[in-house]
């Protein structure tokens, strides 16, 4: 019983830590959206997306409102900015790290250290971005959706690709992808159809992927995990198969 209890306690601690990091990242996205276009979701599509994504990770309503208020000047809030870092992981895997930071000097030092610790190399701007497409992505639950019909209906609204994916809990998702400039048009069409969006945002999709052995891939995964542990890191994208 003692071991079972300890295992359960460790699992709960890991989940709590994961939730805390998810809330931190969601809060920073909200702050950047508010500072860019104001605190009213109805007039700020980026804020609507940020709130939507915060709800997707079960961020409490009071924490969402607190993030909005701080960014709007009701409380003391840090000035966050989006900074993209690029580099190579083990075995030549290309990596893009999207961050939201109030201190780029601190962030780049942490990112560089993580790459070095994980047998990778932090590169310069543009060093690997050419290997990816920067695209908009709307994520839906596939339940009750006729996939082929949805694809046909949304092609005229910017949809370029419909792929399968999962959320952090391993539950299936439909990934609707479009050119970055068509993102607002696609999201509006999805909302007009009354579909519930799980989350949405911009992603870096590799043009081609690289397959590694299980052992080699594990080295890359360890580096990605190390990067994701930093609170400044929002998302990590790779061209690993």
List its traits.
3 domains; disordered N terminus; Arc Repressor Mutant, subunit A; Alpha-Beta Plaits; 241 residues; single chain
Concise summary:
This protein is α+β, with helices and mostly antiparallel strands and 241 residues long.
Mean pLDDT score: 90
Strand arrangement within the widest β-sheet reads 3-1-2-8
CATH class of the largest domain: Alpha Beta
Radius of gyration: 19 Å
Number of domains: 3
- Helix vs. strand class: alpha+beta
Number of helices: 7
List low-confidence stretches: 1-13
- The arrangement of helices and strands along the chain is HHHEEHEEHEEHEHE
**CATH architecture assignment of the largest domain:** 2-Layer Sandwich
CATH superfamily of the largest domain, by name, is: YebC, transcriptional regulation domain
Shape: globular
Helix share of residues? 40-55%
CATH topology descriptor of the largest domain: Alpha-Beta Plaits
Strand content: 15-25%
Instruction: Give the termini separation.
Output: 40 Å
Question: What this model shows, in words?
Answer:
The longest helix is centred in the first third of the chain and has 36 residues, at 2-37. Residues 1-13 have low confidence and may be disordered. The strands form 2 sheets. The chain has a 4-stranded antiparallel sheet. It has a 4-stranded antiparallel sheet with strand order 5-6-4-7. The radius of gyration is 19 Å and the shape is globular. It starts with a helix and ends with a strand. The protein has helices spanning 2-37, 45-56, 61-71, 104-117, 147-154, 183-192, 214-228, and strands spanning 81-88, 94-101, 121-122, 132-140, 159-166, 172-179, 197-206, 233-238. With 241 residues, it is α+β, with helices and mostly antiparallel strands. The chain has 3 domains: 2-71, Integrase, N-terminal zinc-binding domain (Arc Repressor Mutant, subunit A); 81-130 and 208-238, YebC, transcriptional regulation domain (Alpha-Beta Plaits, 2-Layer Sandwich), CATH 3.30.70.980; 132-206, YebC, transcriptional regulation domain (Alpha-Beta Plaits). A hairpin with a 5-residue loop joins strand 5 and strand 6 (172-179).
């Amino acid at each position: 019983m003692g071991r079972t209890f300890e295992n359960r306690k460790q699992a709960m601690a890991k989940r709590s830590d994961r939730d805390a990091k998810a809330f931190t990242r969601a809060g920073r996205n909200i702050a950047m959206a508010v500072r860019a276009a104001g605190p009213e979701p109805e007039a700020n599509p980026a804020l609507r997306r940020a709130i939507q994504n915060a709800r997707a990770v079960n961020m409490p309503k009071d924490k969402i409102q607190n993030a909005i208020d701080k960014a709007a000047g009701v409380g003391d809030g840090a000035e966050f900015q989006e900074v993209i870092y690029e580099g190579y992981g083990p075995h030549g895997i290309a990596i893009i790290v999207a961050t939201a930071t109030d201190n780029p000097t601190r962030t780049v030092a942490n990112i560089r250290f993580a790459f070095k610790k994980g047998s990778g190399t932090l590169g310069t701007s543009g060093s690997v971005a050419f290997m990816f497409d920067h695209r908009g992505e709307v994520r839906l639950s596939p339940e009750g959706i006729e996939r082929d019909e949805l694809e046909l209906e949304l092609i005229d609204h910017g949809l370029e690709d419909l792929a399968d994916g999962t959320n952090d809990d391993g539950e299936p998702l439909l990934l609707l992808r479009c050119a970055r400039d068509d993102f607002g048009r696609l999201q509006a069409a999805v909302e007009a159809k009354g579909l519930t969006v799980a989350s949405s945002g911009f992603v870096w999709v590799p043009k081609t992927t690289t397959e590694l052995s299980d052992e080699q891939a594990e080295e890359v995964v360890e580096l990605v995990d190390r990067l994701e542990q930093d609170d400044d890191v929002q998302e990590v994208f790779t061209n690993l198969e």
